[in-house]
Amino acid sequence: MVAKSQHSIPPLQTNIILESISDGVFTVNEDMKITFFNRAAEKITGISSEQAVGQYCFDVLKANICEKSCSLRSSLKSDSDVVDRRVNILRADGKQIPISISTAVLRDKTGKKIGGVETFRDLSSIEELEREIRRSYTLEDIISKNHLIQKIFDILPNIAESESTVLIQGPSGSGKELYLRGGCFVRPHSESGICKAPRFLSRKN
What we know:
Blueprint: H1 11-20, E1 24-28, E2 34-37, H2 39-45, H3 49-52, H4 57-61, H5 71-78, E3 82-90, E4 96-107, E5 113-122, H6 124-136, H7 147-160, E6 166-170, H8 176-185, E7 200-204
């Protein structure tokens, strides 16, 4: 049997910890009004703690899920956690940014529900990296020693010049999406920068 510690972290130390982490953290009461807003939350949203505390959380974050599918409200109603949900919020400067949120019920020492807590992380740099990876992808990144695949490599440039629809078939996990993307980049882009590749369709056998 494991004994539970009777010691708790003093409120001052709790605040120091919450103010030191890189994730945004805020708490709300049962009316969905913000009661705590840490430094990281200020940095991500562009809104100070003084401005945020006392406001409804949907007026501060202005997320694309606030009106119909608020994760924090869902946690309060169902007593269940939401973990790593991707949403977009509107910063104070009007810029929309992607974040990952996790929500949970907030309880006092007796176990009584007193509100909710949400942590969130800015995904802007991650999404930009994903875009860079997609932009830098070329046919030359597909590698195979199979002679049948090599034949496909040889004819892809000709296919890319065609205006016809191309159907790519194969079992799940065979790499169809690689050819879908590779087919776009083997063909020179127009002056507008738009890829002029043929229409590629993918279907699982």
